[in-house]
Design brief:
This protein is an alpha/beta fold. 18% of the residues lie in helices and 31% in strands. The strands form seven sheets. It has a six-stranded mixed beta sheet, with no helix packed on it. The radius of gyration is 31 Å and the shape is elongated.
Length: 409
């Protein structure tokens, strides 16, 4: 089977991956969710003309020539309503957020008023009508669409929805991603490995990437190289209503790589297998009814890089989110050899220097080396058959973390 280009693999992966149906959640549980429909205001904000400052509610016409003395006929604070109209030569002590009394059309800030007695002030400056007043509906009006469908509910959007009197919100359902690790050699963290055994690490990074893209993650645990056990795990994912099943290892064609065969026997339609990329060549994707199956390589670095490139955009698409890798242009700090037919994702350190990004690839690129990936804050992308590159040449990088600034050291 010919190696599939990365771009074609992504296109096949996302083909037909539409956002999931809506569900209703409490606004307290809606942070980070995506609105399924446009949100209309259930009320007007402010619901009345309100004071924007602490001071005195006045008639602007009374302050045409200042200084002028005004009678203070009462006081009104936020949450209260003044029970009479303001007439000529009168004022009302008012506080921020309080409804404007009838007859008043401006607020004289307290710094521009000299208190003469408990019921008299001297206004020291003139005002235009509407000065220091928040008019009814200034922020939004009832039935206005205040948030569009597809909007991520960030802190500002949540506060706006609450101000519009929504206690519940209709959001896109979170994709459920079931993750299964396979391999007789794997043990969970905290184990005391016997000879020939290793600690399973891929799940935690892959789950974090899925969650950061908006998924709910279901841990199917670790199963050995046993067809029946793998098939049982697949059924658990189906019964749980998973939208995506991720397998870690076992998707190749070795004697102990059983995942692809089990999935095919269960009815999976294979979308692709073997990608022209490094690391990550033995990536598998298929559909088992409504369940999307992504078989990640067992090597830790390949598993995580493939999760950034394929799993995250799939989860984001299903959850109604937009997703884009942080791709930049940088300059090479060292020369790089010509590339072969596979697209390379080279772990690198990217730093700011003289106003540009400078990328330094790590000398060791083995796909089992998690420490190198942890130290890397970027991947240098080398296209298939890229010619040799010299120091100072431009290169394409995917930022995994923000580069350090020179003064951060």
């Amino acid at each position: 089977m010919a190696l599939l280009p990365v771009a074609e693999a992504k296109a096949r992966l996302l083909d037909g991956a539409n956002h999931l149906p809506a569900e209703t959640v409490r606004i307290a549980d809606a942070a980070g969710r995506v609105l399924a429909t446009g949100l209309k205001a259930l009320r007007t904000q402010p619901p009345f003309d309100a004071s924007a400052m602490d001071g005195y509610a006045v008639r602007a016409a009374d302050l045409a020539a200042t200084p002028v003395t005004l009678n203070v006929i009462g006081e009104v604070a936020a949450g209260q309503v003044f029970d009479r109209a303001v007439g000529a030569g009168e004022s009302v002590r008012i506080f921020t957020g309080a409804p404007m009394p009838d007859g008043a059309d401006a607020v004289l800030i307290q710094e521009n008023a000299r208190v003469l007695s408990a019921d008299r002030i001297e206004a020291l400056g003139s005002l235009a009508t509407g000065r220091n007043v928040r008019l009814q509906g200034l922020d939004f009006k009832k039935d206005m669409v205040i948030l569009p469908a597809g909007r991520m509910l960030d802190p500002a959007a949540l506060s706006l929805a609450a101000a519009a009197n929504h206690a519940e919100l209709e959001v896109v359902r979170r994709p459920l991603v079931a993750i299964l690790a396979t391999g007789d050699e794997l043990l969970p963290p905290g184990s005391a490995p016997a000879p020939g055994k290793i600690i399973a690490s891929n799940y935690f990074g892959v789950a974090a990437i899925a969650a950061s893209a908006g998924a709910t993650v279901l841990d199917l645990g670790i199963v050995g190289d046993d067809r029946a056990l793998i098939a049982q795990a697949v059924q658990r994912a189906v019964l749980a209503g998973a939208d995506v099943m991720v397998t870690l290892g076992g998707a190749s064609v070795g004697d102990h790589d059983l995942v692809q065969g089990v999935m095919t026997d269960a009815g999976m339609a294979l979308g692709f297998w073997k990608i022209a990329m490094r690391p990550g060549k033995p990536l598998m994707f298929g559909r088992l009814g409504g369940l999307k199956v992504l078989g990640l390589p067992g090597n830790p670095v390949a598993s995580l890089i493939c999760s950034h490139l394929f799993l995250a955009p799939l989860v984001a698409r299903l959850g109604g989110r937009s997703y884009r890798l942080d791709e930049r242009t940088a300059r090479l700090a060292v020369a790089m050899e010509a590339n072969d037919q596979r697209q390379d994702y080279v772990r690198a350190s990217v730093e700011q220097s003289g106003g540009v990004l400078v990328a330094t690839p790590f000398s060791l690129q083995d796909s089992s080396m998690l420490r190198t990936l942890s130290d890397a804050n970027a991947l240098i992308v080398r296209d298939p058959f890229a010619v040799a590159a010299s120091i100072g040449d431009d290169c394409r990088v995917i930022l995994l973390r923000a580069p350090e600034m020179p003064n951060e050291r």
